[in-house]
Design brief:
Helix content: 25-40%
CATH architecture: 3-Layer(bab) Sandwich
CATH topology: minor pseudopilin epsh fold
Strand order of the largest sheet: 4-6-7-8-9
Largest sheet: 5 strands, antiparallel
Order of helices and strands: HHEEEEEEEEE
Strand content: 25-35%
Structural class: alpha+beta
């Protein structure tokens, strides 16, 4: 009687060899090293745009509330020079802006922070709206990323309170100026 051994099942090893696994890990490492800086720049760009959106929305909401309620509203913008956790926007009276807004409430990543520069005239960090939505102050607010080229700005016109946003083309230094804010 002849016994047949099925060597097919014994020779066929399922899975990957050590060399195949090492090659895969090395390739994934190279791809990760190439992609990581681009992802960090994308994240920084998003944080700057988000901060500008919060500033724009808070100022416009305070202006609408001043008109709707028929009262004067003063918006105070704290750029948080000493403590980034204190970058806030608040209003007086509180009914103009129901809650204090955090300008940058995203999770901080090492070596990535944003800078907020405020240049409002006549008062340093305040915008006052009349009951008609007009303002006696105007100026520029710029938001920068310390780790990317993203620079955005918010400009409010003295008198009518007309606002615009854009890309800031000036240096990341005080004072920021409206002519260096290119509209979108």
């Amino acid at each position: 009687m002849k016994i047949y051994h099925n060597n097919y099942y014994r020779a066929n090893n399922n899975g990957f060899t050590l060399i195949e696994m090492l090659a895969t890990v090395i390739i994934l490492g190279i791809i990760g090293a190439i992609a990581a800086p681009n992802l960090m720049a994308l994240f920084s760009h998003h944080r700057v745009n988000n901060a500008l959106s919060i500033i724009n929305g808070a100022v416009k909401e305070a202006q609408r509330q001043a008109i709707r309620q028929g009262i004067s509203c003063t918006v105070t913008i704290n750029p948080g020079d000493n403590d980034p956790g204190e970058r806030t926007i608040a209003a007086v009276p509180a009914s103009c802006l129901p809650e204090v807004r955090l300008i940058d409430d995203d999770v901080d990543i090492a070596n990535d922070d944003i800078t907020v520069r405020v240049n409002l005239v006549p008062t340093a960090n305040e915008i006052t709206f009349s009951a008609k939505g007009n303002t006696t102050s105007g100026g520029t607010i710029a938001v920068f990323s310390d780790s990317s080229d993203t620079q955005r700005c918010f400009v409010i016109a003295n008198g009518l309170g007309i606002t615009r946003t854009g890309n800031y083309t000036g240096p990341n230094a005080d004072p920021v100026n409206a002519p260096q804010c290119d509209s979108n």
